[in-house]
Amino acid sequence: MKRIYADAAATTRLSFDARMEMNKMCVFYPGNPSSSHEEGRAAKEKLEEYRERCAICLDCEPNEIVFTSGATEGNETIRNLSKSYMSSNIEHPSALAKENANLMYADSNGIVYLPSRLQVFPKDSVVSLMMANNEIGTIQFVRQTANYCHKSMSKNILVHTDATAAVGHIPVSFRELGVDFLTCSAHKFHGPRGVGILIVRNGTKFTPLLTGGKQERGMRAGTENLPGIAGMTVALEKATQSLYENAERTSKMRDRLMEGCLSIPGSHLNGDAVSRLPGNVNVSFDGIEGESLLTLLDAKGIAASAGSACHTGTSEPSHVLLAIGRTREQALSALRLTIDETNTDEEIEYIIKAVRESVEYLRKFTPDRMK
Fold it and tell me: Alpha-carbon torsion 8, 13, 18, 22, what sign?
């Protein structure tokens, strides 16, 4: 049976070009970039070359880029910068404010608006708003948020955006967003796992999370993952160069997939119907249990999810779906299908058919009062 991969929001396949670049680094550049010998100098030169190339893709200065192990590390770094940290209530767990009093609330479509109480938020606070939600696909007003915090406030409020779900799928310009920090992970755009980027605007107050060594200009200790950075750079360049073409094609498949899923009686779209990532479809189905639906789809050769891969293995409903007003039952009945340019129209039609058949089958065992 040919498998269909519809879980791109969890991770994407490593591209051939990225793998070849990683192999080259492993074979021909064995040195530590911090070493002073010839091998170390050669590795350092490649490291800085990749930094410059990533900066071009993300529209920032090379010296604003800090290479990390991924967005979780970057998010945690930013979350620890200030005791006055505010986030939306639909952030990834690594960027979620730990105090309920410091949450900004999303509406029923997943759009987050700044609360009026931000006017009395303490000096040197950090506000975090993800660029696009990884579960429901809603795209946020990050530029407007950053503009408000910087120009309407006089308290040196810093703004962070977790762009993990966005980079490689929609245009991302650090300069145009106007934020102070941006985080992302390579494996979301066909790069390797375990490597990412934290962008820190020049001149911004910053305290590293990982200390000890002087790597990354003292902003992140630990030997740089040169093969991973190499693969990420090539994947980022390819995704950026083909972004509009891929987004247009993926959006068409997404719309067809969304239409097909919503044609099933008792289905409800989660997230904004328009301001949405090109490949994201998140739907709840009345009268079924999401995990059972995933099991049936897996048996039919389809890889999908009920939400963020970070929550897999728990029986708790998605905090994102609860945050936008879904009931516990609706949240537990959700199906997230995330596709990209590697999928085909034929796969989309098969997914629609499989979802319909599976939902109808599961409802045969559901009490009438729950349908």
Answer: positive
CB 246 within 8 Å of CB 259 = no
pLDDT digits (tens, 9 = 90+) for 53-101: 999 999 999 999 999 999 999 999 999 998 889 999 999 999 999 888 7
Two tokens at 143?
Answer: 């530029």
Question: Across the chain, which distance is largest between two alpha carbons, in Å?
Answer: 73
Identify whether the C-beta of residue 161 lies closer than 8 Å to the C-beta of residue 128: yes
Residue 6 CA: distances (Å) to CA of 3, 12, 153, 272: 10, 10, 42, 20
**Residues whose CB is less than 8 angstroms from the CB of residue 72 and which lie 6 or more positions away in sequence, other chains included:** 92, 94, 185
Mean pLDDT of the chain: 93
Identify the bridge partners of residue 338 per DSSP, sorted by sequence position.
7, 280
d(CA 158, CA 163): 16
21, two tokens: 């670049």
| pLDDT at residue 369 is higher than 50 | no
What single letter denotes the amino acid at residue 290?
G
State the pLDDT at residue 1.
67
Task: Please give the CATH number for the structural domain made up of 4-12+244-370.
Answer: 3.90.1150.10
Token digits for 371? 């349908």
Q: What is the pLDDT of residues 320-343, one digit of tens each?
A: 999 999 999 999 999 999 999 999
Kindly report whether the global pTM for this prediction surpasses the value 0.85.
Answer: yes
For domain 16-241, give the CATH number.
3.40.640.10
Q: What per-residue string of b and e applies to 193-223 under the rule 16 or more CB within 10 Å gives b?
A: bebbbbbbbeeeebebbbeeeebbeebbeee
| Residue type for position 124 | D
Phi first, then psi: what are they for 229, rounded to 5°? -65, -40
- Segments making up each domain of the chain, as ranges: 4-12+244-370, 16-241
CA-to-CA dists, residue 330 to 133, 197, 327, 347, 359, angstroms: 18, 35, 5, 26, 14
Q: What is the pLDDT of residue 49?
A: 98
Q: Which helix (H) or strand (E) holds 151?
A: helix 142-151
Determine the straight-line distance between the first and last CA of the chain, rounded to whole angstroms: 32
| Residue 310 known to be catalytic | yes
Percent of the chain that is helix, strand, coil (3-state, to 5)? 45, 15, 45
